[in-house]
Structures are given as structure tokens and as C-alpha cells.
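Hi Y.,

Following your request, here is the sequence exactly as I used it, all 171 residues.
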Amino acid sequence: MKKADIIIASALDDAIEEIRSNSRAAGQVVTGKTLKSLYREVVPEADGYTARLYGRAYFGALETGSGPARKRGTDAEREEFQRNLEEWCRIRGFPSSGLTPEQLTRVAKWLRWRLNKYGSRLYRKGGRKDIFSPAVENFEERLTEQLTSFYSTEVENLFTEGFQGFGNSPQ
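Below is the corresponding structure, written out as C-alpha cells. Let me know if you'd prefer a different format.
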């Protein structure tokens, strides 16, 4: 029989796979780093379990998009954003006119400025609700169903074991 923590971990694994599948279907995967960053943790507590799903800091942008920058950020953060945009441009072939490395850097700087000023197109359109929202709902349904079944069986077994030897023992 499965333990509750195994049931929870399995349901989280299913949710992670659903999120990855939804993101791929939406055409959001460029490098795959965001989806590879997803992992789960199930921690036993005194009164049950705590289940956590982790991902990159801006994972929520898969559904909401990236809004305008509210703060300037550190030099290291801006440089990392710049490098990520340059990598995105190279992978997407944007623009496809064979830019020199210096031109690519300028395009990425312009994109960084534009994203910081106005946010991403997904953000400006109001976001979407088809990447991780359905996975969370399905996780809750799966977990409720599986844990209800698990605990019903556990209670039944405990009840039956408690009456062994009082005429209810198996023959």
C-alpha cells in the first residue's frame, strides 16, 4: 500500500509534467531552463505533510507575462538579463539577418529597455490561464481523490485489526 507522502509526491510529479506539457504546447520553450528548474519537495510535519513546488524566480511569468520593471536592479541582475536576452535572440534567430556580436548586444539591450519600460506582450494582453493553473486544479482533484481512498482504506484496516480475535478474524 502506498504511503501518503508517496501519493503527494506522485501527484506533484504529474503536475510538473502537465506544466511542462502546457508550456511546450503554448510555444513558450526556448532554452528549457525554466521548465528544467521545476522540482518538488514533500516534507513530513507533525500534523501531516508540507508539499512545495519550486521553480525559477520568474516562473509565474509563464502565465502572467513580465510586467514593466518596478526597480532598476543591480548591475549583476541587469547583466544576467542582458545575457539571457542575447541567448534568446540567438536561439530564436531574431533577427535573422546575421548580426555581428556587437549588433546582437545592441538588439538585446534595446529589448531589455523595452521589456523594462512596457513589459512583455503577454503581460500587455492580460496574461493567460493555461500553463500552470490547470495543473494546480488537476493536482488538487487527483490528491483529494487519492488521499480520500488512501485514508478510507487505512481507517478500514485499523478498524478491522482492532476487532481481530472477537469473532471477526479471518478463517
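The mean pLDDT is 86.

Thanks again,
Q.
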